[in-house]
Every structure is written in C-alpha cells, then in structure tokens.
Amino acid sequence: MRPTRFYSNKQEKQVAKAVGGRKTANSGATPFVKCDVLADDWAIECKCHTEHRSSMSVKEEWIIKNREEAFQMGKHHSAVAIQFEPDGENHYIISEIDFKEYMDYLRDITREVDDGK
C-alpha cells in the first residue's frame, strides 16, 4: 500500500481539475496560503480514504477550520471534499447559505429555459 500522502495528493489534483482551481503547495501548510485547493472565490479542503470505505466520519473542526482559513485568505466560500475510495467520486460539504444560493441559481436557470420554450 502507498502512503496516505500519495492518495491525498491525487485527490487534491482531481478536485483542482474538476473545479478549475489549483492545488496549493504542501496542502496549504504554509503561513499565507491555506486549504488544499483554491478556485475563484472558494477554499477547498480535501479528505480521502486510502482504500474503499462505505462511510467517513466528518469532523466539525474540518469545516470550521476551512471556513476560518477561507476568510483569512479573502475567499467567500469554503467546502470540504470527501472521497470514499481512491479515484472515486468527490462529494462536497458546503454551508446552508451556499447550498441555498446554488438552489436559487438552478431555479433561475430552469425558469429561463422554461420561458424560452
């Protein structure tokens, strides 16, 4: 089995590519740049397993720390990306405010499409 860092690095690259962002150096363990991936106005923390698991315990501290680090870097949104297996699908934990904005956006797009018919 490969070291945990191998799988973390791989997930960070996948997330960065998927969201059009960039992976931070040393997983954000520098004094000024935090989080694992930065994309537009988002700071994303990545968490993964090294082998397939059907569950993952999500820690509140991940979300709080990510939100604080996003704020410190001037980012308005934060997310935690979780992956249940190497090369698996990423799932994003976002705040209720961000989720509501996303829902409103989808409603607006649907309305525009429906009105255009």
Mind explaining what this structure looks like?
- With 117 residues, this protein is an alpha+beta fold.
- The protein has a single domain, classed as Trna Endonuclease, Chain: A, domain 1, CATH 3.40.1350.
- The protein has helices at 4-19, 60-72, 96-115; strands at 22-23, 37-39, 42-48, 77-83, 90-94.
- It has a five-stranded mixed sheet with strand order 1-2-3-4-5.
- A hairpin with a 2-residue loop joins strand 2 and strand 3.
- The protein is globular and about 55 Å long.
- The model has no long low-confidence stretch (mean pLDDT 92).
Quick summary:
This protein has helices spanning 4-19, 60-72, 96-115, and strands spanning 22-23, 37-39, 42-48, 77-83, 90-94. It has 117 residues and is an alpha+beta fold.
Supply the number of helical segments: 3
Strand content: 15-25%
State the CATH class: Alpha Beta
Pattern of helices and strands: HEEEHEEH
Multimeric state of these chains?
Answer: single chain
CATH architecture: 3-Layer(aba) Sandwich
Name the descriptors.
single chain, 117 residues, alpha+beta, Trna Endonuclease, Chain: A, domain 1, five-stranded mixed β-sheet, 3 helices, globular
